[in-house]
Structure formats: structure tokens, C-alpha cells
């Protein structure tokens, strides 16, 4: 069987034949967002956009279902990676993350969370190895649920609302075509950064992509 982007397709098929009991992924990559079609195109869902784009790139679907997540497994650079989208709303993302870490028995440092950031210009990407919530309710939920802020995260800039505009309405709003294109570009860069993170340290990835 051939491979795409360093992914062995036969390996993926075997994962869905019931051999998942003792899987130990190298990384769990979680895109943050709100479930449901009403939010699908919103700025707050850029984490979902990245997961969907990566899943499409490697030819898999998020077919594993739990009450807190949709997920799948894939091998990239001969290392197992879990891709996941929470089924919870953003401010309850910690429930999904807690489940995933417990399910696979991995440390928070093996987690990568992708989410929107209104403090970054549209399309700007920033990678951090750890840190505070920075005012993001989803990250605050994660830190509270797992009692740690020692996890890498990829922040994708969606720009800031005007002073007179409501912040919640802004992040739940839909970007225009120009902003959407800039965000899509940063998603492509983010996918490459995730691939690189499987081969290099997070500090090296930060220096290359920030």
C-alpha cells in the first residue's frame, strides 16, 4: 500500500479493525470550536477548520465517536497521531481534553490545541509551548479540567473587533472572503507545523514558524 504525506494507509485501516486498545499516540491534535451548522463558518471555529483540512489532506474521517469528541487516528512520519474535534462548546472544551488524555494515557505535553485568537492579526499564526489562557475561555476550561497549562497550542489570528462591537458577536461572526483566505493560509502553515512537531522539538518549531 502506498503512502500520502508520510502516512501508511494500510496501517490506518488496521486501526479500524478493532486493534485500538493499547494505542499510544505521539500527539493528540485538537481543534477548538462550537458544534453545529450555525457555528461552522464562524471565527471561533478555526480550530475545527484546521482539523477538517488535515483530515481531508490525509484521507481520513473523524469516525470515532464519544459523547465529548469526534476523532480519528492517523500515522504521520511513522508516528501515531489522534485528530479530534470536541462535541462540547468552546467554554467546555476541557471535558473533551480530559477524556482524550485519560483515554490514551498521555501527558499534556503531547497535546496540541488549535484555536482562534482575537489578539493576533487576521491570518497570523503563533505557537506556544505552554502558558496561561490569555483570556480565551476554551483554554481556561482546558487548564481547569486537566490542572495543567503545560501543553502546546497553535493560535490562529482572527483579528480584533472594533471598540464599539461586541467581542462575542465578533468571534461568532463569519469572516469576509479576504479574511477567510488569510485564515486558510495560516491553517496550511499550522498543518506543516504539526508535521514538523513530530520530528523536532516544540522550541525548534516555534523558532521556525513564529
TrEMBL record:
Pfam families, per database record: Pept_tRNA_hydro
GO MF annotation: an example: peptidyl-tRNA hydrolase activity
Signal peptide range: none
Annotated InterPro entries: Pept_tRNA_hydro, Pept_tRNA_hydro_CS, Pept_tRNA_hydro_sf
Top EC class, one word: hydrolase
EC number(s) recorded for this UniProt protein: 3.1.1.29
CDD domains xrefs: PTH
Keyword vocabulary terms for this entry: Hydrolase, RNA-binding, tRNA-binding
Similarity-based family: Belongs to the PTH family.
NCBIfam families xref list: pth
Protein name per Swiss-Prot or TrEMBL: peptidyl-tRNA hydrolase
Species annotation: marine metagenome
Lineage summary: unclassified sequences, metagenomes, ecological metagenomes
